[in-house]
Amino acid sequence: MLERDLNRLPYEAVPSAAVRIFRLAWQLESWLRLMVAVELRAARQDWEAPLRAKCRNWPPKSQGSDKRLHHMATSHLAAISYLTFGELWSVIIDEQNFGMFEPYLPPRQNVLVRMEELQAIRNRVAHFREPHANDEARASLLLRDIQPGIRRFCARYNRECGLRDADQDDVTNILTDAWERVGYGIELHGPKGWLYAPEPHRSRPRAHASLAIHSHARFTRENPVGLLYRVSLSAPSGSSLDINSFLKRASLFERIVIHVLVLSNRDVGLVIPAIATADVVADAAAKFLEIARESVCPGEARAPLPSDWPETVLWPNHPLNIFQGDADDAVLEVPEVGSAG
Question: What span, in angstroms and rounded, lies between the C-alpha atoms of 198 and 85?
């Protein structure tokens, strides 16, 4: 009987449990890396300092090794993309940094222990060792517990928050004062209401734009840490944007912005941290509006969207462009333990 049952065990060239665990680890590390990039840049002008403190070599040796093979280079250009999982997690769990990530994770002492287990599970799979019988269950439960926090992160990034006194928003005031000079052909909706296109385009603007503020609920005006500005521009009906031309000129924002957004061939945007100062944010917003407006062209764009740009460019299929943080957003693919999926 035992021999017959043993003979029925299927041969697996790659253990199916290992594949599922690797999928879970990929998703978790990708989201954690994204959170770190956003929250550090939103909190500090010297945002790479906490990364350097946890990285054995800076910039990471793996970055130089990867880019040496230029014939097969990918879009990953930032050093943060080359941190090991252990280095990335040590940045998050550091007591000086954890407050930035606390809204998205289980309590610190709880997640500290559970992530230690996950790192061991991840390393088994990454180094081609058979997983423990309970590894998949442990990894799945941790990701299920983190999924609501990832939704909160998406909401923080994508949902506009109102200021009780928009008249005191310095960026809005700077743009308002300069609008006759910088708003040529553009109609913009911001925290203080509408800024209409100066003549001769007041009644027929060449582009529609918006300025929105995104932050944690605990944000106070006296403390810009964590505050994000999102400036967006849309081509009018019957027009589109030359995305290739826009991105080439938008590269000048690389050191200022968190992300350049490409939502479609008609909609683009920038996400800028307030910690950069109101003058810098307003200047970047004004320059972006000029570049995006000049990229508007009649008819539908026929050129394919490019894909060989750094990770600071978020394409239409990027999760931060897809998920808004709603309760039914399945931001992670976590299979039921024991399923074949």
Answer: 51
